[in-house]
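Table S2 (text version). Query chain:
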Amino acid sequence: MKFIIATGNPNKIREMERILAPLGIEAVSAKEAGVVLGEVEETGTTFAENAFLKANAAYIKTGMPAVADDSGICIDAFDGAPGIFSSRYLGEDTPYDVKNGIILDKLRDVPDDRRGAHYTCAICCILPGGERLDIEEICEGRIGYEQLGNGGFGYDPIFVCGDDGKTFAQLSAEEKDRLSHRGKALRSLVDRLKTYMER
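Corresponding structure-token output:
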């Protein structure tokens, strides 16, 4: 079964492919499906609302089962910002190494106990007939003191999860899938899809 993944982010598509493949689901991008989804205006006030807007637009346009996520980093010292504005924070075209550098600079004198942060991932899956699955998971961590690692994407080089001091960008793909907000959400989606397919 083919599911269209409603994102233009190739890193997210790869993560979804790894986790959905064992269920026999082929995750395809809009380009692979031969369609142009266009930009969906993310007018929601929560991750879940924005995930639904993207999944629903892809489902309506293609008629295929559609999966979309909306995710971002929430930094305690910034009162939960950038949150749902994570991809647009400090400008959509600003490279993430620059964004990460600015965040680290703002937190330069902030001690460990006030560097808390978490990633949130909301996934919306729309199935044939319009049935909808909504899932939200988080991954707790903190903001490190420097950008470390070459893996991952986005804010991963400054997000530390666990006691070993490693950032998401220092983890293997398998390690990140096990710990991350998106990995958790996708595993929950797989469990719910198994129930759906067994009907």
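Notes on Table S2: The first strand starts at residue 2 and ends at 5. The chain is about 35% helix and 20% strand.
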